[in-house]
From TrEMBL:
Organism: Lacimonas salitolerans
Name of the coding gene: yajC
Protein name: Sec translocon accessory complex subunit YajC
Sorted UniProt keywords: Cell membrane, Membrane, Protein transport, Translocation, Transmembrane, Transmembrane helix, Transport
Purpose of the protein: The SecYEG-SecDF-YajC-YidC holo-translocon (HTL) protein secretase/insertase is a supercomplex required for protein secretion, insertion of proteins into membranes, and assembly of membrane protein complexes. While the SecYEG complex is essential for assembly of a number of proteins and complexes, the SecDF-YajC-YidC subcomplex facilitates these functions.
Domain of life: Bacteria
Length: 94
């Protein structure tokens, strides 16, 4: 019984750390992954470097092409997109 009483504070500390730090971080990571997966042509995005541009092409699983200004396009890794400013609506099938 004494052994359980000694480990009880450690277990409580771990539980508190889980609910205050680990769980919110995992939730934030999942939301970021959903945002990145939903990127499409025409979305206005902000990169982690602070560059604002419009998605001109979604190349493959982890890369997109962002147009920063007229005729200035850069290739960006999808995971470095920090925020989507404006979202374009998908084209309706005719």
């Amino acid at each position: 019984m004494d052994a359980v009483a000694q480990f009880l504070p450690l277990i409580l500390i771990f539980a508190i750390m889980y609910f205050l730090l680990i769980r919110p971080q995992q939730k934030k990571l999942k939301e970021h992954q959903k945002m990145v997966e939903a990127l499409r042509r025409g979305d206005q995005v902000v990169t982690q470097g602070g560059l604002i541009g419009k998605v001109s092409k979604v190349k493959d699983d982890n890369e997109i092409e962002v147009e920063l200004s007229e005729n200035v396009r850069v290739r960006v890794v999808k995971s470095t997109i920090a925020q989507v400013l404006t979202k374009t609506e998908p084209a309706e099938a005719k």
